[in-house]
Design brief:
Largest interface: A-B, 35 and 35 residues
Oligomer: heterodimer
Structural class of chain A: mainly beta
Radius of gyration of chain B: 25 Å
Mean pLDDT of chain B: 87
Distance between the termini of chain B: 56 Å
Number of domains of chain B: 1
Number of strands of chain A: 12
CATH architecture of chain A: Sandwich
Number of strands of chain B: 2
Distance between the termini of chain A: 5 Å
Strand content of chain A: over 45%
Low-confidence stretches of chain B: none
Helix content of chain B: 55-70%
Shape of chain A: globular
Largest sheet of chain B: 2 strands, antiparallel
Radius of gyration of chain A: 16 Å
CATH topology of chain A: Jelly Rolls
Helix content of chain A: under 10%
Structural class of chain B: alpha+beta
Strand content of chain B: 5-15%
Mean pLDDT of chain A: 87
Low-confidence stretches of chain A: none
Strand order of the largest sheet of chain A: 1-12-3-8-9-10-5-6
Number of domains of chain A: 1
CATH class of chain A: Mainly Beta
Order of helices and strands of chain A: EEEEEEEEEEEE
Chain lengths: 175, 80
Amino acid sequence: MSIQLVQHITVGSGGVASVTFSAIPQTGTGLILQYSARKDGSAQNYGRLRFNSDTSNNYIDFSIQALGPFAYPSNYYPTIDFPGAATSSIRLLLGLSSQAAGCFSNGTVEVFNYTSTADKSVNKNIATESNENNTPNMEMGHGIYTGGAITSLTVVGVNDLIEHSTFSLYQIMAD
Amino acid sequence: MSTTPVKVVVDLSKPKGQRESIIELTKAEIKERTAMAAEAETQRIADEAAQAEAAATRQAGLDKLIALGLTEAEALALTR
C-alpha cells in the first residue's frame, strides 16, 4: 500500500468560497483530504463536504465536538450531534467565532472505497487553532455517503477560505 | 471590480499546471451560501446556549456538594 499526493493547492489572495477536486482518478482504494483552512472574520465557518456536487440527502453525519474557549474542568463539555436523518452534506469545522481572524482549522478526512457504488464510510478529525486562549477545539466524526462512486469532492465554506488556506488530496493505492 | 464570490475547481483530468480554474459562483450557489450562513449562526447560538446551560448546571451541582461539606477539590474529583 502507498499514499500518493494527487494535488495540493494553496488559496491565493482574495480567497475562495469553495474548493473542488474534480475528475478524481478511479485508481485508488481510498482518499485522504488534508486541509488547513484559514478563518475570515469573526463569524462561525461551518463548512460542508460534498461529493459529486450531490446536494441530495445522500449523506449521514455523526459528529462529536468539544468547543472552547473554556478551561477544563470547569466548562469544557463535548456535544454530540446524532444523525437524526440523512442530510445534504457532511459538516466540516472550518472556523469558530471564538477564533481570531486568520487562525487555521486543520482537518483530515478519509474516504474508504471511493470507487465503489456501495455506501462509503467517511471519517473526519479536525482541530482549530487559536491565538487567544490556547484552547483546543475539536470535531471528530463519522459519515456515510450513499450516492455512488466518488468522482469529485468539494469543500464549501459559509465564509470565504482566505489566502494561505491549503488543501491536499491524497490517494491510497493498493500496491 | 467584481465582488461576486469565486470558487476554485481543480480538474484532475488535466495536466499539472493547467488544473486550477477560478470561477464565479452561480446565483444558486450564492443563495445556498447565504442560507448556510444563517444556519451556521443558528448553530453557533444553540451551541453557546447549550454550553452555558451545561456549565451553569455543573456549577450548581458543585456548589451543592461544597455546601454539604466537600472541599472544591473533592467535589471536582467526583465530577471527572
